[in-house]
Design brief:
binds dinuclear copper ion; 8 helices; about 40% helix; single chain; alpha+beta
Length: about 325
C-alpha cells in the first residue's frame, strides 16, 4: 500500500467506527445547517416587506410545545452522539484479550520500538493482525506525537511520562506512521511505517530478529522510563549535567572538589543527588533511593558506561 492510501485506509474496527461516527456527525450537522438555513431563507422571502402573507397570531401549539419539543429533540440527539463517541473512545482504550506489550520511545527525530522479547526496530513497528497491542510510550527529549492515521490513533509522548495506547489492527498491510507534534527542524522527517502481518508471518519475522537484552540495553530503557532522559539529554529543557563520556572522567563539584566519576560516584549521584552537586548546576534532582532496585541500578550504570557509543549509533 503506497502514498495516500496508507493513511486513509481503515486498518482496524476502531478506525471504521471512528469513520462512521465522523461521517454520521458530519451528515447530521449538514442536515441541521441546511434545515435552519432553508427556514431562514424561506421565511425571509415569505415575510418580506409588503408581502401579503398571513401575519396573525400563531396557534398556541406552535408558540410553546413546538419550540420546547424542537429544543429537547436536538439536545437529546447531541447527547446521544456524545455518549456514542465516549463509549467508542473508552472501548478503544481497553481492547479484548491479553494485549501484546510494545514499548515506543520518541526522540529527535526517530521512533524507537522495542518488543517484549527485547527485539528492537527504528521507525518501523511490526505487529500481528487481530491481536490486541498495547503501546507503552515515552519521549527521550521533547514532546512528540505518535500518529497512525490508518488506525485513527494518536497520542502525545511527553518526557518523564508514560503514556499508553491500544489497538487491534485487522487488515495486514503497511501503513504510515507520523509525528504529529512540531518537535524541531527534522519534525517532518520523523515518519515511519506500521506493518500489520498475519500471525504466522509475524512469528516468522520475530524469530529472525536479534534481541538485545544486554544490561546496557535494559539500562537505556530505564533511563527513559524512570524519566532521567527528561533532563539529562542534550535537548532537554531542564539543564542537567550531560552524561556522555562521564564515566571515568573527572567531575568538578560545586564545593570546589574534583572527583572521578566511577561506579560509586554515579551510584551516589542517583541515590543521593544533593550530596555531590556538579559545579554550575542547581541541586534540583530528586533522589531515586527506594525508587530504583539494585538490579536496575546496575543496568543504569552499565548504560552510562556505554553511553557515547550508544548515542553515536542512534544518530
Ligand atoms: Cu517528533 Cu515532531
Amino acid at each position: 500500500m503506497n502514498g495516500l492510501s496508507s493513511f486513509i485506509a481503515a486498518a482496524s474496527e476502531q478506525a471504521r467506527q471512528t469513520d462512521l461516527l465522523f461521517f454520521s456527525a458530519t451528515a447530521l450537522s449538514a442536515f441541521i445547517i441546511l434545515l435552519v438555513a432553508g427556514l431562514i431563507i424561506g421565511l425571509s422571502i415569505r415575510y418580506r416587506k409588503n408581502s401579503t402573507a398571513d401575519r396573525s397570531e400563531l396557534p398556541s401549539l406552535l408558540q410553546r410545545e413546538f419550540e420546547t419539543g424542537w429544543t429537547l429533540a436536538t439536545l437529546l440527539l447531541f447527547v446521544t452522539i456524545f455518549g456514542w463517541a465516549a463509549a467508542q473512545g473508552f472501548g478503544a482504550m481497553t481492547p479484548a484479550g491479553e494485549p501484546l506489550q510494545i514499548n515506543v520511545v520518541g526522540k529527535q527525530w526517530m521512533w524507537k520500538i522495542e518488543h517484549a522479547g527485547g527485539e528492537r526496530e527504528i521507525n518501523e513497528l511490526h505487529v500481528p493482525a487481530d491481536r490486541a497491542i498495547r503501546l507503552s510510550m515515552n519521549s527521550q527529549d521533547v514532546i512528540h506525537s505518535f500518529y497512525v492515521p490508518a488506525l485513527r490513533i494518536k497520542r502525545d509522548v511527553v518526557p518523564g511520562h508514560t503514556e499508553a495506547m491500544a489497538f487491534v489492527a485487522d487488515r495486514p498491510g503497511t501503513y504510515g506512521l507520523l509525528c504529529a507534534e512540531y518537535c524541531g527542524t527534522q519534525h517532518s522527517k520523523m515518519t515511519g511505517k506500521v506493518i500489520v502481518m498475519e500471525e504466522e508471518d509475524y512469528a516468522d519475522w520475530l524469530s529472525h530478529q536479534e534481541a538485545d537484552n544486554s544490561l546496557a540495553a535494559q539500562g537505556e530503557r530505564l533511563f527513559t522510563t524512570l524519566g532521567c532522559s527528561g533532563c539529562h539529554s542534550n535537548k532537554a529543557n531542564v539543564r542537567a549535567p550531560p552524561l556522555e563520556y562521564v564515566y571515568g572522567s573527572p567531575v568538578a563539584l560545586a564545593d570546589g572538589r574534583i572527583v572521578e566519576a566511577d561506579d560509586a560516584y554515579l551510584r551516589d549521584s542517583i541515590l543521593q543527588p544533593k550530596r555531590d552537586v556538579v559545579a554550575g548546576f542547581k541541586p534540583i534532582m530528586p533522589s531515586f533511593a527506594g525508587r530504583v532496585s539494585e538490579a536496575n541500578l546496575l543496568a543504569l550504570l552499565a548504560y552510562l558506561k556505554k553511553k557515547p557509543q550508544q548515542e553515536a549509533r542512534d544518530d
